[in-house]
Design brief:
14 strands
């Protein structure tokens, strides 16, 4: 019993390692163990691959004068609100490789997917637009014409400031401040025609448990108009985790004939070094080389 507890502690602390061709291989004991609270568990080395996928979300809120943009500026503005998603990158890492299977299990845990970062949001236009300066009403077309004229006036005033026509009254830091304020006002008026655009990012974490026979796993799915989707939502294209074992473990620990370990021996699992890549279509989003127990071997070694 003491040896079994020592084996289990070694598994939790991941203190057992092996070496092959200069590479350090993860080695962990396999077998029954008794927890301090009396529960019997089965120590089973198993690697969970963590995939963090980052997506950029571009939001466009249509400006109230969008349909007049071509008339006054010669450029067609978006006429409807829109969100577009782009896959930015993926980070691949490893979760705790040693799991304990309770021989009296409790409830099944929730699915292993979580959003752990989300930055920014698109702004809407205020109910009272920034170009409204009086209580008297005005048609939308007239308001758009006045806003366009204000933009041209602001540009003329900025040119006058920069070229020195106001050098006697506005100079130094005051000139820089004045130009900055004109830029800000011009942008507010331009947004009335071309809308507000914002680009934000969010990251979703997925947990993938490879099986010994599989090499390709669907992490999630993606659409450029909806972003990341569950793996079973067939409306999106798959984001795939590809695992390519290097075969280092079987080289370091060749297969042995089946036998019962002696009193000073124990069965160990040896993780194989594996190339893990996250792919979307033919684009690689991220990669890492990780030790994966499912692709490794089991061998009998002296108790460590």
């Amino acid at each position: 019993m003491g040896k079994i507890r020592m084996m289990f502690a070694a598994a939790i602390l991941a203190v057992c390692t092996g070496t092959a061709y200069g590479q350090v291989l993860d080695v962990a004991p396999v077998g029954d163990a008794v927890m301090p609270d009396g529960r019997r568990v089965y120590a089973m080395p198993q690697t969970t691959v963590v995939v963090d996928i980052t997506v950029a979300r571009e939001s466009v809120v249509t400006g109230p004068y969008a349909r007049f943009a071509q008339k006054y500026f010669g450029v067609i503005a978006p006429l409807a609100d829109k969100e577009t998603y782009t896959l930015r990158s993926a980070a691949v890492s490893r979760y705790d490789p040693v799991v304990t299977r309770d021989l009296n299990p409790g409830p099944v845990p929730a699915p292993h997917t979580e959003i752990y970062a989300d930055t920014g949001s698109a702004e809407e236009f205020p109910r009272v637009l920034p170009d409204r300066r009086s209580a008297s009403g005005s048609s939308l077309e007239n308001a758009a014409r006045d806003a366009a004229q204000t933009i041209f006036d602001l540009r003329s005033r900025r040119t006058e400031l920069i070229t020195g026509d106001y050098a006697e009254t506005v100079y130094g830091a005051g000139l820089a401040t004045a130009v900055e304020r004109i830029d800000r006002m011009e942008n507010e008026y331009l947004e009335l025609f071309f809308g507000k655009r914002s680009v934000t990012t969010y990251t979703v974490r997925y947990y993938v448990v490879p099986d010994a026979e599989g090499r390709t796993f669907v992490v999630c799915r993606f659409r450029d108009d909806r972003g990341l989707l569950p793996a079973d939502d067939l409306s999106g294209e798959p984001v795939v985790l590809e695992c390519r074992p290097q075969g280092v473990a079987v080289t370091a620990y060749p297969p042995q004939r089946k036998r019962t370990p002696r009193s000073d021996e124990a069965e160990y699992a040896v993780a194989d070094m594996t190339d893990c890549r996250v792919m979307f279509d033919r684009t690689e989003l991220g990669n890492a080389v990780l030790p994966v127990y499912q692709y490794g071997v089991r061998t009998i070694l002296p108790v460590r």
